[in-house]
């Protein structure tokens, strides 16, 4: 990595990883809560919804969180089966239907009936991809959840993991301990991929899982214990 690119990425990460970043990002929703169970449920739903028009999906997420708060918060909403009262017909957002949200809540309720946290699906010392596979299997068949073993970049899922795992961040929560920040992959969407490609940080021709691994390897040259900080760096980079 060229020194100039390295320096710009560090500056970009410093600019973007701040409290001001929260406003306008889906991470704003779990930041409404203090109970780690509410944070986890809110974060999983917010990450699930985070695609397409930011302006639109943030409005939909706000609506969903108002609905969940009326039942006592996200965790209580899913574990008391409050979602049973939803009219499952009709469109929620783009290709998501209300039935998809109900199914997601039902699977969350099932997971929490068996374990205290989604974190329990990850075993300390085992490869991250095994835990990701376990997570995908729990929610298999729901729109927006990666097929188990998918080779796609799984951007929203790795964004959720970033929120849960990274420590000492004004943006991320760091409430999980079974995964270390060093294990995380950089969440790769179209913008991050285009920026990384322009900077020569990936030679891949598409934004798939191998691309995420390649970009993460590059970011680990700067932040070996926290390569996912490269997400902020690439988001805010002005070198194109």
Q: What would you say about this model in short?
A:
The chain is mainly alpha-helical and 240 residues long. It contains 10 helices and 2 strands.
Please tell me about this protein's structure.
The protein is mostly helical. It is 48% helix and 2% strand. The protein is built from ten helices and two strands; from the N terminus they run H-H-H-H-E-E-H-H-H-H-H-H. It has helices spanning 3-16, 36-49, 54-69, 74-79, 98-114, 128-138, 155-165, 190-198, 209-219, 230-236; strands spanning 91-93, 96-97. A two-stranded antiparallel ribbon has the order 1-2. It is globular, with a radius of gyration of 18 Å. It starts with a helix and ends with a helix. The mean pLDDT is 94.
End-to-end Cα distance: 15 Å
Question: What does the overall shape look like?
Answer: globular
Radius of gyration: 18 Å
Q: Based on the structure, what is the oligomeric state of the protein chains? A: single chain
Class by alpha and beta content: mainly alpha
Can you count the beta strands?
A: 2
Q: Topology as H/E string?
A: HHHHEEHHHHHH
Instruction: Enumerate the spans where pLDDT stays under 50 for 5 or more consecutive residues.
Output: none
Strand content: under 5%
Outline the secondary-structure elements:
Layout: H1 3-16, H2 36-49, H3 54-69, H4 74-79, E1 91-93, E2 96-97, H5 98-114, H6 128-138, H7 155-165, H8 190-198, H9 209-219, H10 230-236
Antiparallel strand pairs: 1-2
Helix pairs in contact: 1-10, 2-3, 2-7
């Amino acid at each position: 990595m060229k020194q100039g690119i390295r320096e710009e990425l560090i500056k970009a990460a410093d600019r973007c990883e701040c409290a001001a970043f929260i406003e306008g990002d889906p991470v704003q929703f779990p930041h409404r809560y203090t109970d780690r169970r509410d944070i986890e449920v809110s974060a999983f739903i917010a990450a699930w919804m985070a695609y397409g028009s930011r302006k639109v999906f943030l409005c939909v997420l706000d609506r969903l969180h108002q609905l969940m708060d009326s039942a006592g918060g996200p965790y209580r909403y899913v574990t008391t089966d409050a979602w049973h009262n939803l009219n499952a017909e009709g469109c929620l957002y783009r290709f998501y239907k209300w039935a998809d949200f109900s199914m997601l809540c039902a699977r969350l309720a099932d997971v929490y009936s068996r374990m205290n946290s989604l974190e329990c699906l990850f075993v300390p010392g085992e490869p991250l991809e095994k835990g990701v596979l376990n997570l995908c299997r729990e929610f298999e068949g729901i729109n927006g959840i990666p097929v188990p073993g998918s080779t796609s970049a799984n951007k929203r899922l790795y964004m959720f993991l970033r929120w849960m795992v990274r420590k000492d961040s004004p943006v991320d929560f760091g409430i999980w301990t079974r995964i270390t920040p060093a294990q995380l992959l950089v969440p790769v969407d179209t913008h991050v991929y285009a920026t990384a490609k322009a900077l020569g940080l990936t030679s891949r021709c598409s934004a798939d899982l191998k691309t995420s691994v390649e970009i993460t390897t590059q970011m680990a040259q700067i932040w070996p214990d926290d390569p996912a900080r490269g997400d902020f760096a690439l988001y805010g980079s002005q070198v194109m």
